[in-house]
UniProtKB/TrEMBL annotation:
InterPro entries documented for this protein: AB_hydrolase_fold
Name the record gives this protein: Alpha/beta hydrolase
Origin species: Novosphingobium soli
Length: 224
């Protein structure tokens, strides 16, 4: 596994280098992985890397780029728009000469359209936002404050919002909420991997059996 950088397009023009984790031996099959989003991405980061290790053992190169405003990115998350993330994953795919894409959970919303894609446990953006809003309401209640979904939605659309520690701009919230994974991808349900999804856990975790199962399914789908 090697850290790498790739040229990410900026909304107003120009580029800025972003980081990626890569297993790159110059092999014919080159898989771009679009990670799960926000807290789910944190909970599944180790799992994602373990899947990459197993794909490497199966002769598949893989690339896990940071989305602008996330992880090691120096860009401000509140200035991003979903279109920027779509441009970013397309640019990462070109830079790494990806032949296929794997989306994990919310990452399925941003797999490049030109690549054959595999979607693991895909989820609509509205469902992601509902969970994040619910977590904020519960945290506010514990702190003695009362907030409602309706009030938070209005505030988010007017001036942006902080959910689970992530500062989302109004444009991001507005455009993201309506997004759903594109059709045509090969779907991998959690039942095929076994056990409960790691995104449901309270803390980041890993599961060797699930990582092995997903890597095997992905390799089989690519070879099909």
């Amino acid at each position: 596994m090697t850290p790498s950088s790739w040229p990410c397009p900026l909304p107003g023009g120009g580029i800025r280098d972003e980081m990626a984790l890569t297993f790159d031996a110059g092999r014919p099959v080159r898989l771009l992985i679009v990670p799960a989003l926000f807290d789910e991405g944190n909970r599944m980061r180790r799992f994602t890397v373990e899947v990459m290790r197993r794909l490497d053992a199966r002769g598949i190169d893989s690339f896990l780029p940071d989305l602008p405003g996330c992880n090691e990115s120096l860009q401000r998350l509140e200035l991003q728009d979903p279109a920027d993330w779509l441009d970013a994953t397309a640019a990462a795919a070109r830079h790494y000469a990806a032949t296929h894409a794997l989306g994990l959970r919310g990452g399925c919303l941003f797999t490049p359209a030109r690549l054959p894609a595999i979607h693991y446990a895909p989820v609509k953006a509205a469902a992601i936002l509902r969970q994040m809003v619910r977590a904020r309401i519960l945290a506010s209640r514990e702190a003695g404050r009362t907030e409602s979904r309706e009030h938070l939605a209005e505030a988010a659309l007017a001036r942006g919002i902080v959910l689970a520690g992530y500062r989302l701009g109004a444009d991001f919230y507005r455009h993201f909420e309506a997004m759903a994974p594109a059709g045509g991808a090969k779907l991998v349900a959690q039942e095929q991997v076994g056990g409960a999804g790691l995104w449901l856990r309270a803390e980041p975790d890993e599961n060797a059996d699930q990582a092995s199962a997903l890597a095997a399914i992905v390799a089989q789908e690519i070879a099909a």
